[in-house]
Prior knowledge:
The structure is a homodimer.
Chain A: H1 2-13, H2 18-29, E1 34-35, H3 36-43, H4 47-59, E2 63-66, E3 75-78, H5 82-110, H6 116-156, H7 160-170
Antiparallel strand pairs in A: 1-3, 2-3
Chain A binds a DNA duplex through residues 17-19, 36-37, 45-49, 51-52, 55, 72-74.
Amino acid sequence: MSAVLHFGEMGSRWGFNRTVGQILALIVLNDKPISAQEIADSLSISRGNTSMGLKELQSWQLVKQHIVPGERKEFFVAAGDIWTLANRVLEERKKREIDPTLSLLRDLLLDTPSNKTDTEAQKKLNEIHDLLESVTRWSEELQRLGPDKLATLMKLGASVGKVLEFKDKLKPGHQ
Amino acid sequence: MSAVLHFGEMGSRWGFNRTVGQILALIVLNDKPISAQEIADSLSISRGNTSMGLKELQSWQLVKQHIVPGERKEFFVAAGDIWTLANRVLEERKKREIDPTLSLLRDLLLDTPSNKTDTEAQKKLNEIHDLLESVTRWSEELQRLGPDKLATLMKLGASVGKVLEFKDKLKPGHQ
DNA sequence: CTGAAGTTTCAGAAGTTACTGAAAGTTTAG
DNA sequence: CTAAACTTTCAGTAACTTCTGAAACTTCAG
């Protein structure tokens, strides 16, 4: 299935490398649990690399072990449905990318700027800080909604603009 | 300014490499236009590398040339405010990551599955397709709103859940 | 037209990341 | 306790990415 190969490429953009992406695709698209050996064979990669990849996917909580009674081998399955997986990826990336930046920004904003140029730079840093905080707040909110409501919200899509107008109209009389 | 170095690291996660990230940070945080030579000097990188980096940032439309009358050199400034830049990055990433995946998925979904396993796999592919389409639709909508309304929506954050409830209540009498 | 001030390109060096496969480790059945 | 079946680790190598700096190019003033 060529999708597996392609998702490998995609994977490399989503924070892990090509092989790890392919392993994930293989696991997600197989409804049956799959063993490490089968993965290594299907993708023609070494057993060692497979093991590393699975470890990484487990650390992202995208994949979990599945014990087949009477079998010595370990099998693997996806850690949830597509929406859950997408959420996990976003959450994990946020943790690795946005959170450290936010805490650096907070440190930088504590310094009192010593000249005009620094004052301007801090203004920008402050804007970036606000933006990242908004992203963080959204991400928390979306997390709380759970996959089903999230799907509804996502499908709402094109009417976000209208929702915003509602809110503006309703605001005066509404907390 | 240590922010510049740090944003370099971040940059590498946002689709371009460390140096390109640092160049961007330098340009964004300087309110004055800055020349290629000044960039190379501040970051202690070669002139050639600087030129490549600037070319890439221009291809992302994050940075634009700025002509100072009477000066031979080219100067560079950010192509908009922080929100605009963030939007551009998202838009560009979408173009590079999601769009090719979507078109591959469409192709794969045209094939009629030949067995049980393929049918299951296609079901999953279909879910992924839906998810990516929703993301695309959102992204277009957000693009249309423009930075100011976008900021409002973002700040709304914690009340997304409530908005959803509004929508449910209002829907019956509202297109 | 000439040369000075600048920019871009590109081959190869340096640095980084990913992969293999053999060795070490773990678990369980007998 | 031993051996078989499996997993993990890790040193070395392969593959890839980034960076440098010299050469080629462009533009403009005189």
